[in-house]
Amino acid sequence: MTTRRPHSAIDVRPITAADIPDWTRALHTGFLRSPTPTQEEIDSRTGYLLAHRTQGAFDTDRCVATFRSFDQQLTVPGGNQIPADAISNVAVTATHRRRGLLTRMMTEDLTAAKDRGDVAATLIAAEYQIYGRYGFGPATWMTEWTVDVPRAGLDP
Q1: Could you read off the pLDDT of 1-32 as tens digits, one per residue?
Q2: What is the CATH code of the structural domain delimited by 10-140?
Q3: What are the sequence ranges of the domains in the chain?
Q4: Is the model's pTM score more than 0.70?
Q5: Tally of CB atoms within 10 A around 5
Q6: Exposed e or buried b per residue across 69-93, where buried means at least 16 C-beta atoms within 10 angstroms of its C-beta
Q7: CA dist., res. 84 & res. 89, Å (int)
Q8: Longest dimension (CA), the chain
């Protein structure tokens, strides 16, 4: 689905294979990485970006915001699993912040997740605090991991 606000030249839409280099540049820019992705990175991203729900916000022909979600099974207390919408790769370039692009992409994705029957959404975020307006918050403040070193194939 393509969404456009009245009087806006910015289209929010699913990406195509041809959009992946520009989409990756926007993601890099949003995360303050080198804006020029390597061809190897573009090639490695192509399969999963097209297989997942990947959106871009395009100002004329330039990608200025990125968003990706994918199916996830979330284990809940008691050991049951529920279908969840996993959200990642969210970035808006500095030149296009505070224009509602994230809200447009997030709203469209969460609405579609509800329609699919997903009962939860998870977010992989560098700054989780900015997503509270969408109902997200930290899942935990502390965790403990035990690794079976030989089974994991690690050197003792």
Answers
A1: 555 555 468 999 999 999 999 999 999 998 88
A2: 3.40.630.30
A3: 10-140
A4: yes
A5: 13
A6: bbebebeeeeeeeeebbbbebbbbb
A7: 17
A8: 62
